[in-house]
Amino acid sequence: MQLNGKVAVVTGAGRGLGQAYAKALAAAGAAVVVNDLDVELAEETVKAIQNAGGTAVAEGSAIGSTEAADAIVAKAVEEFGRLDIMVTNAGVLRDRSLLKMEDADFDLVVQTHLRGTFTCGRAAAKQFKEQGGNGRLILIGSPAGQRASFGQTGYTASKAGIVGLVRTWAAELERSGSTVNAVIPVALTRMVATIPGMAELVEKADRGEPIPAEVRATGLGTPDDVAGLVVFLASDEAAGITGQAIGAGGDRIAIWSHPSEVVAEVREGGWSADALAEAFPTTFQPHLQAFKPDTVPGVPEGK
């Protein structure tokens, strides 16, 4: 898989998954703008890329504002002449259950994840249009945005919203040849280390020790296990793939479904509350959807 001549931006690429995406894109031949609020971490990622023979520069904008998004895209154009790939990975966590969630915590998470994805996606799409289309928007979602994730109000709302952006933007940019997809990653990162029972596996991954096969088979591995999907979606080979949410982790790849009606009934004159009470147990109740599946691949129930 070659990305020679391509230019990519990866937000939040100072460590973890973002760093793995940036390194993999550079290894495939792309020039990479490595964004991170912690510029020292971004520079460390750049140094690692350069030491491996790749091309990269650091950028330190705080993701969320229009000004930051425009600055990141401008950096790519100034340094490398164009932009072909935008990976919106930057994010923060402020986990609190609903009754304990404060406005500032909710706003920060939404500002970084959802608004940051919007502003960076818009800035990239404008640049793609100037270049004649055929760009790649790769938005980073989460299993938390696909199903219940206790204590993560702002995070789940943002990640669910990001997948919604994928479907809308894919339709809007289809004519120009640009694609928009979501990656739904599961990996042993410092964020996962806070989940009960996961710290030991994260430490094992950090030490470079192999992850047990039975764990990898459930869909839980290292950030590098997700990076191949990002490189593929950024490539010309993925030109016909758009509007999708694709899960990756460990030894698993999965396609997430789009929301759709599971049952519908028509009643002449409409549905009164009494009519619903009569029909619901037999007509609708059997089709109600589980909001908290028994298991999430690689993650304990409740997260």
UniProtKB/TrEMBL annotation:
Pfam families given in the database record: adh_short_C2
Keywords for the protein's UniProt record, in alphabetical order: Oxidoreductase
PROSITE patterns recorded: ADH_SHORT
Protein name: NAD(P)-dependent dehydrogenase, short-chain alcohol dehydrogenase family
Family indicated by similarity: Belongs to the short-chain dehydrogenases/reductases (SDR) family.
Regions annotated as coiled coil: none
Annotated transmembrane regions: none
GO MF term list: oxidoreductase activity
